[in-house]
Amino acid sequence: MSVFRPKILDIVKNYSKEKFVADLMAGVIVGIVAIPLAIAFGIASGCGPTEGLVTAIISGFLISFFGGSRVQIGGPTGAFIIVVYGIIQQHGLGGLLICTIMAGIMLVLMGVFKLGNVIKFVPYPVIVGFTAGIAVTIFSTQINDIFGLGLRNLPANFIDKWIIYFEHFSATDLLTLGIGLLSIVIIIFMPKLSKRIPGSLVAIVVVTVLVWLLGRFAGVSGIQTIGDLYSLPTGIPAPKIPDLGIAEGSTVIDLIVSLFPAAFTIAMLGAIESLLSAMVADGVIGDKHNSNTELIGQGIANIVTPFFGGIPATGAIARTMTNINNGGRSPIAGIVHTATLLMVLLFLGKFVGYIPMACLAGVLIMVSYNMCGWRSIVALRKMPRSDYAVMWATLVLTVLFDLTIAIEIGLLMAVVLFLKRTSEATSIKIFGSEIDPNIESDLELHEEKLQVPQGVAVYEIDGPYFFGVANKFDEIMTKVADKPKIRIIRMRRVPFIDSTGLHNLENLCRQSDRQGIVTILSGVTMQVRKTLLKAKFDNIIPEDYICSHINVALKKADEILNNNR
């Protein structure tokens, strides 16, 4: 499969009017669904409604045009809110531009070096943990708006933020809270009336009209709207490089170094979320995406979008599934979705200012609920406790610290637990005076059991021979009181051997030689044999002592014993 071949190239030959009509309808519907989400994500990230819509338009177009999935819909997502907000607070919009471009370059490099399949191996408990952690953090950022507390310059730290909330809950504006709760109720119950019309859009239209009517005819004021806080979107901004805001005495390199962890987090989140979304979509439409092309497409989008004031973007699973469920089957649907958003930005931008902040808070609270994956958390309780611990550790670290630390420690814990389980799965046993051919699969069948000659000890390693089990074999060897004349090490179930295992085996053979013990390897697979010979293992024991199965090894042992008598 080619590293970079956009899926849009595959539809050119057989694309028909019927397919275009289906994509057109799906694209318009997805565009409508994306309107409130793009606005909400832009504002929650610390930017504004224009930035959210611009990101959905530009990145959505580029991801559909250059991506490796037929139906992927790209744009801003909840996963990036916390990271972006933190970057803006510390480095400003210029820092965010550099960070997003860095993440885009990383994504392109991941695709170029064919890391698309590797990204999919991020452990499930880590994904569940940081996704739930992001959901909790998004929820905590909306408390101020939904309760109408009117707080400014809230701390980024989760605990400090909630301390301030509890100190000011007495100042709750009940009308604002009612507006927010009404938005949530509409979003919850709208699917019971129609699954095609997005509840978030209905909530925004209904609640915005209601607030306008209350202000116009009932004299109700004090309900904060987007227009009270942000300049309204009027069109696609001209591309520009904003002021990087580099502190005196610092350089661009210093800024890049300081932003690298956040950029890496954005790249990893973007890669994981987009590829998981593409995999889910494949299962529904019966297609197969090109993961490396998808990463490159995501990278291109994140390199270009920041120059228009946009924020990081990735594949959005909810919008992708909306596209599929409404008949979208090609990247054309994704392009139509961006055209729909562009029309909103150009012709309806002034109406965005009337949307109440409490309504957007309700939308994001429902996003966080749908994102938290509480069912997955409950299901993980039935899994090994170690997996459950990794999930909770990742979740807590995401909430209390940041995603970078959470992903790093979560992955480290998962790797350590994997190695522990693998080492425990690798068993080492010692055979007595005979080997039963009926239960030993690499033997040539005989009517009688194979006899192990006196003075010969047979050991078997069952599983990978890597650094996690290298010392385990040494320990078993030292516990054997009687030293044999010949030591046969069966490796028929060793799929690979790493450098530590190889070093350990070399030391064992040299030590055995010093003790006058001959070492013979049995059942060596072709893969392991190549590794041994490449490492010049035949300089330690003769190549004919590296045997293909136990019969050859026992015959070789007989010859050595007879020659020494």
Number of helices: 23
Side by side, the strands of the main sheet go 3-6-7-8
Number of strands: 8
Outline type: elongated
Strand content: 5-15%
Helix content: 55-70%
Sheet having the most strands? 4 strands, mixed
Measured between the Cα atoms of the first and last residue, the distance is: 61 Å
Oligomerization category of the chains in this entry: single chain
Radius of gyration: 31 Å
Overall mean confidence score, pLDDT = 86
Helix and strand content put the structural class at mainly alpha
Low-confidence stretches: none
Mind explaining what this structure looks like?
It contains 23 helices and eight strands. With 565 residues, the chain is mainly alpha-helical. It has a four-stranded mixed β-sheet with strand order 3-6-7-8, sandwiched between helices. α1 (17-44) crosses α16 and α5 runs parallel beside α18. The radius of gyration is 31 Å and the shape is elongated.
Question: Top keywords for this entry?
Answer:
61% helix, elongated, mainly alpha, 565 residues, 8 strands
Topology of helices and strands:
Layout: H1 17-44, H2 49-66, E1 74-75, H3 81-112, H4 116-119, H5 124-141, H6 143-146, H7 158-168, H8 174-193, H9 199-217, H10 226-229, H11 252-285, H12 291-304, E2 314-315, H13 317-325, H14 331-347, H15 349-352, H16 357-372, H17 374-380, H18 385-400, H19 403-425, E3 427-431, E4 434-435, E5 450-451, E6 456-462, H20 470-479, E7 486-493, H21 499-514, E8 518-522, H22 526-534, H23 550-563
Parallel strand pairs: 6-7, 7-8
Antiparallel strand pairs: 1-2, 3-6, 4-5
Helix pairs in contact: 1-2, 1-13, 1-14, 1-16, 2-12, 2-14, 3-11, 3-12, 5-16, 5-17, 5-18, 5-19, 8-9, 8-16, 11-12, 11-13, 18-19
